Amino acid sequence: MHLEKLQAFVLSNSDYGESDRIVSLFTLEHGRLKGFARGARNSRKRFGPALEPFARINLELNYKDGLSSLRSADVITLYSGIRGELCAIAHGLYACELLECLTPEGEPLPRLYRLFATYLERLDSGQSVASDRRMFEINVLNILGYRPSLEGCCRCGADFGVLGALMQQGGELVCRFCAATGRKISSASLQSLSACLATSRFGQLELDAEALEQAAFLLDESIATHAARKLKSLDFLHQVCR
User: Whose CA is closest to 102, among 234, 218, 223, 197?
Assistant: First the structure.
């Protein structure tokens, strides 16, 4: 165990005992890890508001596999623009839980760290739109190696062409020669999702109604297949962002 200074996002926290907290962090240097913050609920000097979900912080901790020991944390930003709007809060909490469920522990993912930062900045600017959520999701799946094949059939490799694809269980996309049934994903929707992978700037692309609907079926199914559990934040997101 050795002392390190890290950059991190807080994904979640839970109370432990009378005054301590266990914090789930997504760090630039080590990826996702858990930290034990002794006295965090009582110590304004050492931690203050720095351990709130989707806060971006600098922290000192004694790093080790399993559960690191947090020494102190300083706020870079709390994203006050997100915290002032209920739908933005819902999107922010969902993004945090998505990373918590999908990312491996202790594996640095700097590209995903930058994507997450960019998405939170977009939410902080007052934009919490469905196209941005789907763009975030497809890029997360892509970085982690979980993305459905958008270019061609995952069974035979045939190009989807103008006919589009048929979605199978687990988000698998196949051509009409490899499956007779499945939810249709149009060629235009596949192209829209591919375009989401070609830019890291939120707000440049807006998916039309059909693409949003089909992306929702595909991405929700793919995420559910790879997530370690059902995402609790989804219920809140659906309630406040209709």
Answer: 223
Q: What is the pLDDT of residues 84-133, one digit of tens each?
A: 999 999 999 999 999 999 999 999 999 999 999 999 999 999 887 899 99
Portions of the chain given CATH number 1.20.1440.120: 83-240
The full DSSP string for 158-225 is: -B-GGG-EEE-GGG-EE-TTT-S-SEEE-HHHHHHHHHHHS---TTS----HHHHHHHHHHHHHHHHH
In tens, the pLDDT along 122-131 reads 999 988 789 9
Mean pLDDT across 214-219: 97
Report domain 83-240's class.
mainly alpha
Longest dimension (CA), the chain: 64
C-beta of residue 183 within 8 angstroms of C-beta of residue 101: no
Partners of 105 in beta bridges: 32
Numbered ranges of CATH 2.40.50.140 in the chain: 2-78
Residue 229: the pLDDT is 87
Q: Is the pLDDT of residue 208 over 80?
A: yes
CATH code of the domain occupying 2-78 = 2.40.50.140
